[in-house]
Description:
- With about 290 residues, this protein is of the alpha/beta class.
- It is built from six helices and five strands; from the N terminus they run αβαβαβαββαα.
- The protein folds into two domains: about 5-20 and about 250-290; about 40-245, Pyruvate Kinase, Chain: A, domain 1, CATH 3.40.1380.
- The chain has a five-stranded mixed β-sheet with strand order 3-2-1-4-5, sandwiched between helices.
- Helix 2 (about 90-105) links the parallel strand 1 and strand 2.
- Helix 4 crosses helix 6.
- The longest helix is centred in the last third of the chain and has 77 residues, at about 215-290.
Amino acid sequence: MASVKDLRDRIRSLKNTQQITKAMKQVAAAKIRRAEEAQRRARPYADALAELLHDLLRAVHAVDHPFMRPGKSGAPSGLLLMTSDKGLAGAFNSNLIRAAELYVREKPDVTFYTVGVKARNAVRRMGARAAAGWPLAAASKIDAAREVARRLSDDFTGGRISEIVMISPQLVSMMSQRPQTRKLAPIVKEDLAALAGGKVPDDKPKGAVEFAPSPEFVLSRLLPKYLEFTIFSAMLETDAAFFAAQLIAMSNATDNAKKLIDELTIEMNNARQAAITKELLEIVAGAEALGA
């Protein structure tokens, strides 16, 4: 049995850990509210962009844009893996990395692009080919999304990759965050559902719309914006999903620390009582020996 001093030291250490996990839980709760608010502010733009792109695709007969054509045959797939920069969020990052590993098993010829420190480190451990990497915690996420989209667009149009696929977390609920795999280029009409909240705009006419100088020209300018904003939206959702996972993980850690403290406190009290009983028995035995 451990000594009373050892048990007291373990209880003190657990109490310090509990204070840290409780503080991290409160920080995650505050940050997830801000992340969800950022997502809500971006949603109207996403819906309008998806609807406009859908209208344009209906208005044009043929689109001569690299994003609408198949990629270069024989070129590797471009996989954008998006994780958080930090851990302490349960299996959040591990699930995303596992989804990337499963994708690589199906398509071994892959060029990685990473957003998030954990993604960058995972690609290095895999020994895979990494073209570029960016941290998730950028000062301006929209500027970071533009840079990521620009690099992916250049490599796709330049024939260095045959397609653009993104693996990022989907915030299903506070208790559930799961990886999702989406093809970003080449673009088909059904891909707009991801940007429009899972719903493709219907084909009912909404009135006459005039595009100047032409629908093809407007579409060629909006397609890069579609890629840029899809990445930006995924970065916002990754933030929200990470803080939700961290909130649950830190809540569980705080509860587990409390259970361990209670168990060790009972064990310490038993050990202290046993030590007191032993001392009393020694005193009684000594007194009887002197009396004899």
